[in-house]
């Protein structure tokens, strides 16, 4: 294998740990004697040519920073063959042999489209707070977002002392309930309402049923954003169970930010180094993930199409512990 | 003065540092050889008799905890003379010589009404995150809430990388802009919209005017909750300046919780000790506050009626630094 | 199986998440209709009879707290057959059918001795910040301690701006380098010196050799406590490489405390629930651990005797990223 | 007044909030139409000419960062007239009309020496975690260091559950006990041993005397670094009171780092803006400080020579609350 120049970009929603990953990709490539081009603002910058060389120093002191120093964006133009052709022009012009894309589902779909139309190797690295990528136990940013949510719910619980008060706390994860389910367990919440569950009417009724019998001072329910989210359930409770005092808290964008946790920095570092290893081995068009604490390669097409289920054990744990 | 038994309660919205204050009141009274009765759930517990003696040990290991171990509530019944008469019955029955009330405006108004109708000494201690009490430079909980907001805005800024995006972040302070104005300075935000300012239409227009000329990637505006708050301004921008991408984040109840900062713990400790000193001196119906880093006594009636203005210097500082 | 009454204790060094685990054990047992006896101060309390029944409410609002509400101690008396016989007297007297021990190596050895001499079922749950227990990928408290260390090193790095300055930061882990190795990666440190490595003289020389060639402003080396720890290496540098300005920071006991991370709370909750499941299944004298994100049972004798190696990949990752 | 170009530097020990102050100085000067030169590594850079122009953008996204982007150093050469003459050469060459020095005592002494020998206006801004500067209620970095210490002691307390164990926690402040005294109150510690007190032998004996009578499980004593610090007292207790189990924790360099608190960011912003106001007014050779929440000017000579006493009230508060 004789890769000489790689490009790296972050794409889609930003996630804590992306900088740690850019740093690892950059240094591992330089360690091999390769050249690294940093592409700014995701596929937008690949099309417009907003690209600068990265050095060991240019990624110094970034491992602890949230967001992404390469910025990120969603690019409509890149969704068209014409846009991707323009991007490929820049790739050729700069002599980029392989493209490393840090992002989620949509970003990988873009990478795959590019690789199928043009002669370029792509490697995907899972960076999204939602943890909804098949082929990896954990995505970069998920652990940090989980901790951010739990810290917020800890604070909300401090103030939740009045009787019969129900808080619905809305968290990210439109299509995946990992954040809601796990933060509910970690925060000692009473229930989680997640998109994987299609029986939410019963869930609320069951939860209320359990709640009424309890001597608890307050209840906290984590809700994944979707179809009205927390507000929807608050409205239902106000109508159907007017005896309760209901409050809503929508955590919003702060879930994306913050200094990454140790877990996310280590994961990002390992995946970044592994992406260069994969290129050395001649791998093409894969996602590098982590399974059972070991580096794995997954065809990028498979990482996009497959669903990652929530462990039933976790649902059981929450039910038992919220008595 | 020969006070022997005091009662202590927290009332109104909870604030971080209330536990540190309860601890200080309790220990300083016990240090004098007095007895301390903890009244649960504010004036509600005073009426219903939900009262237990506090010891040195019962306040151990509470200085660092958010919320209030005595719980808090808003009591409609206490707003009536009949309710206050019931409360006084319990005060007499338990031999309480003085009542220490940790809370804000509304709580002090209740204390004053009680003291004007019955033979009981009341001492108010300023506990509210809003910092809107006359006669004290700082209220218990304000510094913690300010830091909580700033940490949240730091996280939001991490994700605020796209061009022309304006975030409106809504914080507490319906009648006072201390939290919004100071967190805007501390978070490096571009503007603050506060209730003290009656020219908010111009404020938004001015801010946008400045914003358009700038090469900034993103703007963050702190907004006090009031008249629709952040959502109102977001709607206006969407209509009047459709070229911007607008996001809203309502921080909500998490602002009330969390481990108190060093500042709030020290303030709460000093005020708690000073309340017992005031009783030793025979003071009646005052609020104990802090001015220029010294303990002061303010007639409780005055603390309620007077407004506390925002320093113009701070408005100027924000304007200059957001260039 | 007809377990009716269980005892639970924490033993050895405390670890964040122990409370979350006590809570889970308690609630999962009560969920089954069982009775739970909380044993205070580890085996000491089992011998002295410092034991109280735990209820659903008595573990409320503890999931987020560091330390252990059951306290912990190291018991010399329990190391003798006589001590264990006394402990068994209390077990019989209280009708305890099974004992759940949350702790590390030494605590498990005690549990095994007890079970081999008397008719009592023991279940071990891995609670130690060192992560050095065979049969589980992760121990309760390890993730929190790792994050605490990384936050400290982030702060130290803020001040480490002068040229040629080397910081040796000593962390816990007398026999296991998990904390040092992983925190070095996560904190972006230049090297880790760990007990698993028997070539430390070369390590320091190699590190210095690399350091001299680099244009770095400062270097941070994580050192596991052992044989003089950080101080030993600082002395060596002062003697052998006097051109460097060396500083030492020993993180010490603060590594054991703090609010547990989401990961530790979830792990503790899952293991606690699983320990009751194991008893329902009639398991005896096992440790309940987590492997590849699934609950596993390991003979308690095996968990004590086997070593858990450090992944070589992590050593490689650190070497590459510290260029 | 027609200042056109200012220089800004940080000097001495770094302190959180220095970046917020550099940002404020830079933007307030640019707001006036002035030019700002950033001098790197304190007086070292002034002598060697390590100086670059600062723009509005170059201080973007720095308000929340610990350390100092201008770096800091202690310069032996600047302590000589020859060194200061070299520095003045650079000042003239770059057309710098005024020098803003962010630092502590030693840094201000250097500034004064420069101003007394050469025709240059200097303005000092108080930046030190020790809070030991006369003429200002608070120094930039003090509030953050205080909170860092309190967070550490909170963690240490989590693990301090065994009987008769005394922790001596050593904090910074060789000549001033502000950090030790205030963190002791805020952390709920049992005592503080500070340099302002010359009766430390009695202090320890008194504390032990109180401790023996108490039913406390553990005691925490904050000790200012000086004359052996915490280790000294631990040794004394081991010899004189062998019945106690003693532990030592030296917090060290991590006290200097970390994201600044809201208080320090606001203070730094206000002082930075005020330094430009002072130059506009034609002020020379002053320190800009804060007294009673208002900006004040103090002759720089006076800020160096005068001592700032510790409030006796605080010593009393700690004594009462540690019962």
TrEMBL record, chains A, B, C, D:
UniProt keywords, alphabetically: Allosteric enzyme, ATP-binding, Cytoplasm, Glycolysis, Kinase, Magnesium, Metal-binding, Nucleotide-binding, Transferase
Enzyme kind, highest EC tier: transferase
GO CC entries: 6-phosphofructokinase complex
Cofactor: Mg(2+)
GO molecular function, one term: fructose-6-phosphate binding
GO biological process terms on file: canonical glycolysis; fructose 1,6-bisphosphate metabolic process; fructose 6-phosphate metabolic process
Pfam families listed in its UniProt record: PFK (PF00365)
Catalytic function, reaction form: beta-D-fructose 6-phosphate + ATP = beta-D-fructose 1,6-bisphosphate + ADP + H(+)
Activity control summary: Allosterically activated by ADP and other diphosphonucleosides, and allosterically inhibited by phosphoenolpyruvate.
Keyword Transmembrane helix: no
Every Phosphofructokinase domain range: 6-279
Compartments, record wording: Cytoplasm
Superkingdom assignment: Bacteria
Pathway assigned to this chain's UniProt record: Carbohydrate degradation; glycolysis; D-glyceraldehyde 3-phosphate and glycerone phosphate from D-glucose: step 3/4
Keyword Cytoplasm: yes
Enzyme Commission identifier(s): 2.7.1.11
Chief localization: cytoplasm
Binding-site list for ADP: 23-27, 157, 188-190, 214, 216-218
PANTHER family: ATP-DEPENDENT 6-PHOSPHOFRUCTOKINASE, PHOSPHOFRUCTOKINASE
This protein's name: ATP-dependent 6-phosphofructokinase
Organism of derivation: Candidatus Cryptobacteroides avistercoris
Source organism phylogeny: Bacteria, Pseudomonadati, Bacteroidota, Bacteroidia, Bacteroidales
């Amino acid at each position: 294998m004789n890769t000489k120049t790689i490009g790296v970009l972050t794409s889609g929603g930003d996630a804590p740990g992306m900088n740690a990953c850019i740093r690892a990709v950059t240094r591992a490539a330089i360690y091999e004697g390769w050249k690294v081009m940093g592409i700014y603002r995701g596929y937008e910058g690949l099309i417009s040519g907003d690209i600068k060389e990265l050095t060991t120093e240019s990624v110094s002191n970034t491992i602890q920073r949230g967001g992404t120093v390469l910025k990120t964006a969603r690019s409509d133009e890149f969704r068209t063959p014409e846009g991707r052709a323009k991007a490929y022009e820049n790739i050729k012009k700069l002599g980029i042999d392989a493209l490393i894309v840090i992002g989620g589902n949509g970003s990988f779909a873009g990478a795959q489209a590019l690789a199928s139309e043009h002669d370029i190797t792509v490697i995907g690295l899972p960076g999204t707070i939602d943890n909804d990528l098949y082929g990896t136990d954990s995505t970069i940013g998920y652990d940090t977002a989980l901790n951010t949510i739990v810290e917020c719910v800890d604070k909300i619980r401090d103030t939740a002392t009045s009787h019969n008060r129900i808080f619905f706390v809305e968290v990210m994860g439109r299509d995946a309930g990992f954040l809601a389910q796990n933060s509910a367990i970690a925060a000692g919440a009473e229930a989680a309402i997640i998109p994987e569950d299609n029986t939410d009417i019963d869930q609320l009724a069951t939860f209320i049923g359990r709640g009424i019998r309890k001597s608890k001072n307050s209840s906290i329910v984590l809700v994944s954003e979707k179809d009205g989210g927390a507000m929807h359930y608050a409205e239902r409770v106000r109508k159907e169970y007017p005896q309760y005092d209901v409050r809503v808290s929508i955590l919003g964008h702060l879930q994306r930010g913050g200094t990454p946790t140790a877990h996310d920095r280590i994961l990002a570092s390992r995946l970044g180094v592994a992406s260069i290893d994969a290129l050395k081995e001649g791998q093409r068009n894969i996602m590098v993930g982590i399974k059972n604490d070991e580096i794995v390669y997954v065809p990028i097409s498979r990482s996009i199409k497959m669903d990652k289920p929530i462990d039933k054990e976790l649902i059981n744990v929450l039910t038992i512990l919220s008595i």
